[in-house]
Design a protein that fits this description.
By secondary structure, this protein is of the alpha+beta class. It contains 8 helices and 11 strands. A hairpin with a 5-residue loop joins β4 (124-128) and β5 (134-139). 22% of the residues are buried.
């Protein structure tokens, strides 16, 4: 034992005379001090582990008490990268309670393509009222007479099982005026179609669905839609950007002419209808 240790445990150590009992007491105290040190170091890992456990619990409580910040941030990243397809309906109507041109379309931002379907006027479909109530079966052409613009919209949405993010309507007069303003429409072959009336007449001829007639119909329609995308004045394709690929959905080879109670209709069988619906949603 050195002087420092003696000074630590006893006052006036130098004046104390030790006997056997005194030495025993001193060594007992020294051993007790060493045991305390050993005991602390023996249990210090437990104390440290407990401390770390408490810290971990506190951190978890802070994270959980916040409004799911980590999860929300991940959801925001996923939602920003998600592709939202835009589905729309475009009609041309006249004063005779008819909609001679009914267009449904889907724009896919990931492929930058526009799927377009021109619905035949004589297609046999379930007719819906403006309130969305089924009235009966009739030609697509007659949907306007039963429920106006909203009736046509409801009929198209229910028949093709789509939702519309955009719903645009032009009268025949508005359509003719627009085509005249842009100087007419050129077909794929480059032949000039002069004037809105001729363009409208070409698009309205849907009585005979042959493959050639349908091809010509879609050539003119595609040219009209491309012109509409270039000119913001005719806002019939909302939120669809310029310079996109137009995919036309033709059904001339899918429909069958059938006479019902003395009237001819175009019938689209269930299997073919499902194929058309799938094409619209791509």
């Amino acid at each position: 034992m050195n002087n420092k240790e003696k000074d630590t445990f006893f006052e006036d150590f130098d004046q104390v005379k030790f006997n056997a009992n005194d030495r025993k007491k001193v060594f007992d105290k020294l051993h007790a001090r060493k045991d305390k040190k050993l005991t602390f170091f023996r249990f210090s890992p437990v104390v440290i582990s407990s401390f770390l456990g408490v810290v971990t619990v506190v951190i978890l409580m802070v994270l959980l008490s916040s409004p799911n910040a980590v999860i929300q941030e991940k959801q925001q990243v996923n939602s920003s990268s998600a592709v939202k397809k835009q589905t729309g309906v475009f009609l041309i109507t006249n004063e005779n309670l008819r909609a001679p041109l009914n267009i449904v379309y889907t724009y896919n931002p990931s492929t930058k393509s526009l799927n377009v379907m021109s619905v035949p006027r004589d297609l046999y479909v379930p007719i819906f009222s403006a309130e969305g109530r089924k009235i009966g079966m009739d030609k697509m052409l007659h949907a306007y007479a039963f429920g106006g613009q909203e009736g046509v919209r409801q009929t198209l949405l229910n028949y093709f099982q789509i939702t519309d993010d955009s719903f645009s309507v032009l009268t025949e007069e508005e359509f003719i005026k627009y085509i005249d303003q842009i100087g007419g429409i050129s077909s794929v072959s480059g032949e000039k179609i002069s004037g809105g009336e001729e363009v409208l007449a070409s698009l309205s001829i849907r009585d005979q669905l042959t493959e050639n007639e349908e091809r010509e119909h879609y050539e003119i329609l595609s040219a009209v839609l491309e012109a509409a995308l270039e000119d913001s004045e005719l806002n019939v394709l909302e939120e669809v950007p310029r310079k996109i690929k137009v995919n036309t959905i033709k059904i001339a080879d899918k429909v069958n002419a059938k006479k019902i109670e003395g009237i001819y209709y175009y019938i689209l069988e269930d299997e073919d209808l499902e194929e058309v619906r799938s094409s619209l949603k791509q």
